[in-house]
Amino acid sequence: MAVFIIGEAGVNHNGNIDIAKKLVDMAVECGADAIKFQTFKAEESTGSFAEKAQYQKENTVKEESQLEMIRKLELPFEKFKEIQSYCNEKGIIFISTPDGEESLKYLVSIDVPLIKIGSTEVTNYRFLHKIGETGKNIILSTGMSTLGEVEKALEVIYSTGNKNVRLMHCTTDYPTKIQDVNLKAMVTMRDAFKVSVGLSDHTVGSEAAIAAVALGAEFIEKHITLDRNMEGPDHKASMPKDEFKQYIQHIRNTEKLLGNGIKKPTNREIAIMKDSRRSIVATCNLKKDTIIEQSMLSYKRPGNGIKPELDYILIGRKLNRDLKKDEVFEWKDI
């Protein structure tokens, strides 16, 4: 099964529907399977006393509060129906993360194929329960979480009867330092909870995605932007078009490198075998009717004769013809 690749548009539309559609176009052109947005009303998720996260302070105007920043990034709910329709036209899956019960209710009403839960909600049990009750497929992001917190979050969702949950490992830092990625934690969650896992990749470059796929990630999410120099909290840690296209190609190449796990020679190797493997050959000139002894056998290229592993069958047999030194034994010769 191919890795499911999500272009995370998030709030990089900056509250502009035209930019949102351009991000859809970008994701399609780069070869992503889905594009994800964030559906919210600022006051539903953020209080007036909330400070910005450190990375948000570094990437936006310092004087404004988190609520003021988020208000500028908000899109009216009905705009997401328009984006969804645009995605359908372009042949890409529309996904969005709800930031509260009101936005969750709206996304369910437009029949999104799955609900992506942000890392900020891992301990928000009432909200997790509401999401579980939708019966939708769920991807739960696990940034900032301990294994115990993830376990409890799963228990809450499972208590609704909804077992359609996959876990997304991530580090909630933009960009994430290589030493903070800890991809083995993704494997730990897969083994502990017996669920599909993936990576929400906030690093610079493709190495984390390549390693995650090699470790068994079934889905990868990456922030995308039209331009890293745009105003907003996430643009600097997001990938522009050329990089995202190459990023997806790296993932697809990694899938090809991993193959299907069946150990067998390729078609090209089969053709190469006759020139590179060894056959049983004569160590010296041998006359017809000679009884073959071990000392008369050597193992050299080409590989189109009797395999070395079958030399015991030749010993004690009589030759049917003369053989020259280094000539390959054939079954008709005995």
The total strand number stands at: 10
From the 3D coordinates, which CATH architecture of the largest domain would you assign?
Answer: Alpha-Beta Barrel
Number of domains: 2
How much helical structure, as a percent, in the residues?
A: 25-40%
Helices and strands: which structural class? alpha/beta
CATH superfamily of the largest domain: Aldolase class I
> Distance N terminus to C terminus?
50 Å
Major sheet characteristics: 8 strands, parallel
| Shape estimate | elongated
Q: Secondary-structure map with pairings?
A:
Layout: E1 4-10, H1 17-30, E2 34-39, H2 42-45, H3 54-59, H4 66-72, H5 77-90, E3 93-98, H6 101-109, E4 114-117, H7 125-133, E5 137-141, H8 147-158, E6 165-170, H9 184-193, E7 197-201, H10 207-214, E8 219-223, H11 241-258, H12 267-276, E9 279-282, E10 297-300, H13 311-314
Parallel strand pairs: 1-2, 1-8, 2-3, 4-5, 5-6, 6-7, 7-8
Antiparallel strand pairs: 9-10
Helix pairs in contact: 1-5, 1-11, 7-8, 10-11
Describe this structure in words.
This protein has 334 residues and is α/β, with parallel strands linked by helices. It folds into 2 domains: 4-258, Aldolase class I (TIM Barrel); 267-333, Antifreeze-like/N-acetylneuraminic acid synthase C-terminal domain (Type Iii Antifreeze Protein Isoform Hplc 12, Alpha-Beta Complex). The chain is 37% helix and 16% strand. It has 13 helices and 10 strands. The protein has helices spanning 17-30, 42-45, 54-59, 66-72, 77-90, 101-109, 125-133, 147-158, 184-193, 207-214, 241-258, 267-276, 311-314, and strands at 4-10, 34-39, 93-98, 114-117, 137-141, 165-170, 197-201, 219-223, 279-282, 297-300. The chain has an 8-stranded parallel beta sheet with strand order 3-2-1-8-7-6-5-4. Helix 9 links the parallel strand 6 and strand 7. Helix 1 runs parallel beside helix 5 (77-90) and helix 7 (125-133) crosses helix 8. The longest helix is centred in the last third of the chain and has 18 residues, at 241-258. The chain is elongated, with a radius of gyration of 30 Å. The model has no long low-confidence stretch (mean pLDDT 94). This is N-acetylneuraminate synthase.
